[in-house]
User: Fold this.
Amino acid sequence: MKWLSTITRFFRFGSAERGPTASRRTIRGRYDAAETTDENSRHWSMVDGLSARSANSPIVRKRLRDRMRYETANNPTTEGMVTSFANDVIATGPRLQLNTNNEELNDALTAAWVRWSKAIRLTCKLRLNVRAKINDGEAFNQFFTNDKVPGPVKLDVKPFEAEMCASPTENLADPFRVDGIDFDAAGNPVTYHVLKQHPGDLGPNFWEVNDVAAEYIIHWFKVSRPGQVRGVPENHSSLPLFAARRRFMLATLMAAESAANFGGVIETETPPGEADTTDPLSTVDLDRNTVMTLPAGNKFKQVTSEHPNDTFPAFNREITKETGRPIGQPYNVTAGDSSDHNYASGRLDHQGYWNVIDITREDCEDVVLDPTFQAWFAEYRLTDEFAEQFEDLEAETFEQIATGDAIDWEWDGHPHIDSNKEANAQETRLSTGVASFDAEMAAAGYSRKREWAKQAKAFGLTDEQFAKAMRQKFFGFDPLAPLPAAGTTPGQPAVKRTQKMEPDEPAKPKRQMMPTGGRA
Assistant:
């Protein structure tokens, strides 16, 4: 039973560190933070050594979810923060960009994907996923067949809330099952247990479960620790700050109301034992804009507010800044207020925020978009529409799509306040060869191929004619045209035209000038 004594000593050490004798324990080391004293013992009293699975137990995740949802539903700042983040990440939605060796397939698949994604409102569901990831800690999507989806592909995506992925009987001793998810020996999810009914409905099918294969489930959450398989609300560390802000706001409001109301007490100067005309603890109604007289020996004293109302703006600003930090959101975005920023500081604050947005988008591509496209393409390949157009498609092209090598996603670009400065910077990057047209237009949220095709159509040109005009504009000449002869300038004809004389035409005699004063 040596292992039992080892575990006992571990937990005895943990409890001793949190107990009243913690200051007597001496840890030899060079780290001040490792010392436990009377001053810091209370601050570190909740420290534990739980694993990611135990720390994110079902009851802990439920409590954090419920509280975060409550704050989002009742706190305008929290609701605005979550909504702004979801809108900034998804914007108008990601756009598919296929780069296989078959241009006809690229155009056909892109058009079919756009029709299907609009039919199921995929962009709206992606925003819902981002909101769930922040409020609930994790977003779930399930693929299923919906016969009412227009078009040849009947695949649909159904988001569901985190508490619907649960095991009716959770066994902490089972290393291959973690609250609604079964794993294999390599740690890959195999099966998700999805409740047929939301636990909050308390219906007849409260604990009936559907076992869904992992290939039909999208599970997106922020991984903060190794071994973590379920998520917690990303703003969980801000929950105490939300409560503190609300208490301070209510206290400030009550103090302001007390100062605004004309209230007070009547003090008597009548000596003890003498008759007093006022009854103790009685109240007197006061009319607005009136003058009142008091009995002899009494005076009125108004109750004033002693609350420091002028500190509320600074307190509110600091709390708002901290609440947005877990998701990398600057103050002017969380508060919706840039009145204290100049142009430079406002743009500087946004640089780190856009970096968080880009990272979240890349994570969305890997976890949500790529698997969704693969599930859709597997269905689209079986349709008659696909078979009629691409009956003899090369295996290499299928492999490019299956491995994801030919799949890119375009997002809306980050807005720039000064469009002239941004245009000058783009021109500099292009002219020096630091960036390409594709990269610059993708950063702005456009596809170079699609936009040039639209421009060519608008001018009544072919794609090649428009490309030639762009080459001429960029280089000053068309580098694909035949090279000019030596000694000539690019874009100029190789031979200059000169005035030629007919061979039979005699040369005209030069006119002789007469000397001054002479006669002809």
User: Anything to note?
Assistant: The mean pLDDT is 81. The chain is about 40% helix and 10% strand.
